[in-house]
Structure prediction request, 64 residues.
Amino acid sequence: MGDVINLRQAKKQAARKAARVQADANAAKFGRTKSERDLARAQADKAARDLEGHRRESDPTRDA
Prediction:
């Protein structure tokens, strides 16, 4: 015969484990420091400026 377990406690433990897994996934997806976000934004802005600086001729639709 198996061990006797309290179903209420088992459900709570399973819910905590699921919440922990979700939190870890969110931390990996969104968890960047402010300095990392600022650096990425600055690099993207610089790349856009560099690309715009290499444009040969002006596009009349972009001058607006």
User: Anything to note?
Assistant: DSSP finds two helices and no strands in the chain. The radius of gyration is 26 Å.
